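Re: beginner question about structure tokens

> Can someone show what the tokenized structure looks like for a real chain? I only ever see the sequence side.

Sure, here's an example I had lying around. Input first:
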Amino acid sequence: MMKEYIRTFIVYLLTLEARAVLKKYKPRLIVVTGSVGKTSTKDATYAALKQVAFVRKSEKSYNSDIGAPLTILGVPNGWSNLYQWFKNLFDGAMLLLISTPYPTWLVVEVGADRPGDISKSLSWLKPTVVVTTRFPAIPVHVEYYASPEAVIEEELYPLSALAEGGVAVINADEPHTAQVTLKSGVRTLTYGFSKRADVRAHRYRVSKKAGLPSGITFDVMHQGTEISIVIPGVVGKTHVYAILGGMAGALATGATLSNIAKLADSYDAPPGRLRLVPGMHESLIVDDSYNSSPAAVEEALEALQNATHTGRRIGILGDMLELGSFSAKEHARIGVLAESRLDMLITVGVRARGIAEAALEKGMPVSAVHLFERGSDAASSVLSELKKGDVVLIKGSQSMRMERITKALMQNPEEAVKFLPRQDTEWLAR
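And the corresponding structure tokens:
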């Protein structure tokens, strides 16, 4: 309880400093919001914009009440280190006392874990650009809201906070944003695969090496200009949407497509988001272990299904948490999808049993389905029978710590910090 009081007080002081810093330096804000793909889109926006402007982004997936102050002050998360938090306060005070070069643009990710999270975060911020990502029918964290619509309503709140003359960057393929009403004086810029999108992707394909996926390529069109994008080491259209959203976010600031054409050269997909990782016995891991939700698992399964492979398609799927009353139905729905997309299904956790049961009921052979309660047991089982050419998808909610399974199956586990989420000292100690 005392730690929570201290944290609340420190956040309050950092927020006061951050507000004063905004008033002094007057940077413009790009806010990234949505249920899926926020961090990748935020990173892509930064990668695009840094080619033409002095810009800073929020680190990792810090999208809570502390995320914006940390970004504005340019200081790290102190976690449980009280010294670091006091240093952050000192560094913030120095920004106010001594004039220093400061970014002209800030890219901030906001997220909703509980009702009011986003409206609280934005109560003192006025974004110039808001980039919306995707809003699935059953969003993550729905357990804490009255309905899925209530989650989406909060995640769309940043659009109402746009400053006059601002730009709403909207996913043209997303039905939940098709009928959004914007205040007068706000311009719209759309992106997606749709022909009506202002920033449009087409000719998406998966590149391969030695019969296994090695990355993705696609073309982007905007106002008569077309460029090709190559992103090695990932699979899935999730990354296409991130790049498109990032490009559109940069274009909303006045950049041109030719200005930001080298975005892919500096874009590094966040750890745990459909990253390709060399596995043991010449297998390939599709690591999507950062977090999970029904829509995200569906996208991951589609990416795996479309990936080239010379061996089996293996899915290691953990519990999807915070779904409340939708949990049983959504786990079962994923099981039905898994039956047609996987050669072998391994589940981890009590809730994920529903995935296995639905896959078996749909007709998946009993010999191809394995249930575990602990990730370590699942890792040992899969490791014992991995073969050359197998492609293994690993996905589950954050609390399931599925990245530990990935590390156990990696060809070079010493590279975990490069590929995997939650490799900070604080996380590894948990």
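Each token stands for a local structural state, so reading them left to right follows the chain. The longest strand covers residues 199-209.
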